[in-house]
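name: query_chain
kind: protein
chains: 1
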Amino acid sequence: MELPSNLSPDEASPEWMNKGDNAWQLTAATLVGLQSIPGLVILYGSMVKKKWAINSAFMAFYAFAMVLVCWVGWGFRMSFGDKLVFFLGKPAVALDEKFLLGRAFLGYFPTATMVFFQSVFAAITLVLIAGALLGRMNFRAWILFVPLWFTFSYTIAAFSIWCPEGWLAKLGVIDFAGGFVIHLSAGVSGFTAAFWVGPRAQKDRDSFPPNNIILMLAGAGLLWMGWSGFNGGATFSASTVSALAVLNTHVCTATSLLTWLLLDSFFFGKPSVLGAIQGMITGLVCITPASGVVQCWAAILMGIISGSVPWYTMMVLQKKVKLLKLVDDPMAIFHTHAIAGALGGILTGFFAVPKLCRLFYMVPDWEKYLGLAYGLQNGRTSAGFKQMGIQLAAMLFVIVLNIVMTSIICWFIRLIVPLRLSDEELEIGDDTVHGEQAFALWHDGERFVTSKHNKVYDTDDFSYVGSKSMGEVQMV
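structure:
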């Protein structure tokens, strides 16, 4: 077939593009997207009380969609574009063909690939924040919260740490795949927002059993396996470093899960499924900032630490520290993401291998990206302590940024709509918020009435047979 005279095969496959890198990057982005939908949608929807299954899953579903639209509208350029100030890029759209089909600022693939890859990172951050707000946040307030927090918090952290023009990036902070930008941010913001929104109904705080543990494990499994794209894609190439990042990710996660199970078994007598999932998440989070720049034995040590320190803060300190008892965090986002993310960032500053850092950052500078352990070993102690100082500075910056911005955003939203559902709505759950119920299981020969439209359906063929009062089930 002859091409039109104004087209060339080189336009679709230019010389600068590496097809393997492009294919891997798109695959990695899809894996990260699957962590949110369906991964966290299933995990949240099954990990909560059945009356909150729809609302919890839908908070994640909505956040994913809203962030992607905001990302191409202004977020990508604010996070990775031309510098506006030292911590933020200039707002601009990422919709133009010439911009999207040109080479990305990092990697041998089109900018469109980079835009998609980074969009799912931004989206999962908001989905993680939702975990701290389940079971009581007004959905209309959540509709406003997502674009506001994304615009005024996420883009600042992303530009500062990941963009080559960002001030922390220039200092030499190591955050391989988002321990600070995503997990510490989500953990601190989720905890802060939970403080402003207020707690669940007391009855839900006293008893909040999962409605489906098998599905909960399925959602957790999607989250775990999807992390291959999360950390493996952070190299922006199908390289040896990406292979190491994937291996380290899974080794650390498995170690963390087993550590948590051992602690549960020793102190409480039984290995807990919920505990295993929490240990899995803390391992995934902790290794994220370090995955491609540490050795595999260090990943195992990080797994032991990530399976024990958050376990202690959740199982022991949670019951003793007044602030932790005050703030209602149903998915323990503070422990699994804020604590584990901070641990990961600090341990990265300790275990980062200079050679691996040079392979990842492609810089010959020996004054940057030097883990303290190797600084002590090589007689370059000052450089090692400097790296630890940079890691701590980045951690402090992200914590302060998210406490301040999340508080301002919650205060602003509260002027428009209530942050928390009413007590009556909290009593009913999904039915009053969405007019839908997650589980509609009926016996043969019964008729079910949908609560929203008061319509009766025959359960044999789902034909409409009339109207009844709300919630009534009639025998045929």
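note: Residues 451-476 have pLDDT under 50 and may be disordered.
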